[in-house]
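User: Continuing from earlier, I have the next pair ready.

Assistant: Great, send them over.

User: Here they are, in order.

Assistant: Folding the first of the pair now:
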Amino acid sequence: MDFWQRYRAIDARDTRFDGQFYTAVRTTGIYCRPSCPARTPKAENVTFYETSAAAHDAGYRACKRCLPEAVPGTPAWNLRSDIAGRAMRLINDGVINRDGVEGLASRLGYSSRQLNRILTHELGAGPLSLARASRAQTARTLLVSTRMKLADVAFAAGFSSVRQFNDTIGEVFDMTPTALRGTGRHHRTAAATTALTLNLPYREPFDPGIFEFLAVRSLPGIESGTATSYARTLRLPHADARFSVKYDGGAPGRPLILTIGAVDLRDLPSLLSRVRRLLDLDADPVAIDGALEADARLAPTVKAFPGMRMPGAVDPQELLIRAMIGQQITVAAARTALTQLSACGSESLVPADGLHRLFPTAAQITDPGFGLLRGPQRRIDSVRAAAAAMASGDLEFGYGDDLAGLQSKLLPLPGVGPWTVGYVAMRVIGAPDVFLANDAAVRNGILALDAGMQGAGTQVAGVQAGGRQQGGHAPDFNEVSPWRSYATMHLWRAAALRSKPKANPKLQPETHPGPQLQSRQPALSAVPAD
């Protein structure tokens, strides 16, 4: 967006752009979200910043009226695969808090000096300033949403001392931590509980179908899910954790409520970031749906399910194992196989709400878990080889990768082909423009949508029966780029609804054949069975 496009957005107080850029006003010394209700400043007094950190570095303070730190994050960090986007994903996951700027730079393959120069040029702030802004945002969330002690808030947000915490809150918000806490509403919790309960901001609309996607794949003891909630255990850098998320579509504001039942406070920023990635809460659904509706096939399903989200992953290594085991079998069969495998996982958490086990580590899968794997020997060997590579450190991938990096790391593995890499890219790094053209369920979804259009008397120019374009090739949906991953999600849902009994269309396992276990050839797959 250029200056005048952004200025028109703030003049319209358009909430769609909250979190995507920040408006700083020279005459007041404050910065705001685009939808701030205050009077629109004169254009000559306005400077736009890509990040709140850039506004901090320029000497501006957060507006007390619109609270710009309370908005969802920018969707650009998934859309962008450059160094800036990759760095922001890792900063949000708490890498600088754990490993410092040197650790962040080494993961990205740059020196700290080069990285500082790149981020300052692209985002207006260096890595330390970006991490500081992330800590301030986490601290604000905890102050206004919980009754945690101020010292606990400071360390949970990633500050190294209470003094640093006080200074940063004062500089960013022009308020003391106590005063900032007074602006919020705190969730009531039982006196005996130590759980934290927070509201997760997101952009409307929100399709709760993502909970169904996660629920049908949930593993007993590790996960549980319904049509409006999801809970699980996970392993974080300092300790194990447990959380649950519930969507209340009938309450004012349709809140997403996160309850954290167990977590080391040092891991809290990482947990918050991973939950947001899991539910794709930083997406811009209006922009995505607007692009998808340009395709005549997708328009009806986009209107029926506005705000569809793309499920993320709270553990990249786990996601790869689940995707590989889910190949060539149904969702129900994959769930059974993964439940058997999970018996070798740790049981380090105190049981609560039926959750007591952690998904096995790569090392546990390589050794004791190997005997629990079932199915074709070729798949068992492939899964064990991938787990061994991750356990030894020979295979390292995660939120800081891009699609090309994932391809170079994963394609050499036996049993991993382009379909698997594309699926991992969608779930782990949130790649928005992956289209699994040779996926069986994608083709079935096209057939389902075509059938609906034919029933409505609508035809798509250039498309033959069977979901193929003239020339015999499956459509690639290039016209909806860069949002083809979301087109894939809509097609998966269309295929699943087509195959399910009409009497109970939700939360039923898909029964399509899984992707072919090949290392180089495109895979024919179903709705993924991880």
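And the other member of the pair:
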Amino acid sequence: MSRQIFDYVIVGGGSSGCVLAARLSEDPDVTVALVEAGGRDRSPLFHMPAGFAKMTKGIASWGWSTVPQKGLNGRSLWYTQARVIGGGSSINAQIYTRGNRKDYDNWSEVHGCDGWSYREVLPYFKRAEGNERFEDDYHGGDGPLGVSMPRGALPICSAFIRAAQQWGLPYNPDFNGKQQAGCGFYQLTQKDARRSSTAQAYLKPVESRPNLTVMTGAQVRRIVLDKRRAAGVEVMNGSDRTTLLAECEVLLTSGAIGSPRLLMLSGIGPADHLRSVGIDVQHDLPGVGSNLQDHVDLCTISQCTGRHTYDGTDRIDRTILAGLQYYLTKTGPVTASLFETGGFWYADDGADAPDMQFHLGQGSGIEKGIVKIDGCGVTLNSTFARPRSRGTVRLASDQPDAAPLIDPNFWGDPYDREMSLRGLEIAREIMQQPALKDYVRHEVLPGRNASEAEVLDYAMGIAKTDHHPVGTCKMGHDDMAVVDTELKIHGLEGIRVCDASIMPAINSSNTNAPTIMIGEKASDMVRGLDPLPAVIFADERNEDRRDLA
């Protein structure tokens, strides 16, 4: 077995791992290794915005599914987890949303995570962001991550925004600004009509640095411990086994499934569970793999009055024309993330911030598991953004190649199901507003005349993950916390977790932007730098509780 020595070993080349690799290697006096189990993002599908439609069907993913979900009549759901450089940022729908300021204030005030309030994390969102339209209290204009307005939105998208206003949502030009509630166009992680993943935005420009080593196709099998200190990791690359020693720290960035999985395979986690699968306990840490949270997605699908969406573009002649249009003009169907418009609103009238998110899909059958209807269709997804259900990640065996047991416990709390169904009702009502009458012929699913029982059956069968797992190595100080507010694992030295698994509670939107923020903030912590100054807003007027950003 060969050995290599670095100052920092980063395990997982995803949304936060690429950020850490780029930031830490800014110092020429330190050496950094970034280890990714997946391959390179060489296929054009990774860079063309519309390539997302292929990604949810299994390209560049681990191929995992959940255990049977009791709250969904025992269904096992496909659970896409990225296996490629750039991680989720290389395969997602490119929607750039951060959630609500209350999400982060609750991390600080409710969960005791000092330094993680909204005012304190906002500077890291801004540092990451190269926004083509906004540069103000809430946005940065010169960061590495390209953020732009949609290029591939069809006229039905504007009609949807008018319909949502007719239903009662106010127009919102910036979901990441002062106010989250409302409807409008999403900002997207795109630059020059190409996906702006962290692999492209952060890693590619710096990969030639002599102090940075990037390993792909290399799976970390376990963390090497020297008593209570993480000394490095053991890596398999084909048949080659290598030990990467970390003189400073091991940094886990393998995501909310991968990070707890690797910890448990290394004997770090709940002792009883580790013993049950034949793993020697190195460090009893009960919270590893617990507190799993994710968003459940429902949808209503309607038939259009004509070719108002991208359904049918996959016909071979249209695909060729769309490809030529993209390469010649950077316009047309290939520039579409397919989910360019949406909104945030309330399912629970007593909520102090929006708890529902909507995504308009410019077609049907866009994602794996969602029906593709005859003719031209349009989909409106509704997501309950503040779930109370909590699940787990556990090991099936002591073998690193075995798939983990992923149990999000979807709708384990009846409140989540109730709110999800309310959100679906709102989505159906929006699609029936006058502004869409020239575009939408009728509702196909669940069907306009469906009874309450039929809608519930439909929801049970169509519900899917929004691909937003978080929380399984949560930050905090209670008995189930895995890391402290500096992201150091409780009871161990030389190791931190720096990805979405550290969230004590899920943010109320897509999770990629917050994961990048975590990577940015973690990079300063690892380097021992002072945190960026908290934001002081130019306008500090008292705001209504339902108007907080």
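Worth noting for the second one:
The two ends are 52 Å apart (CA to CA). The longest strand covers residues 240-252.
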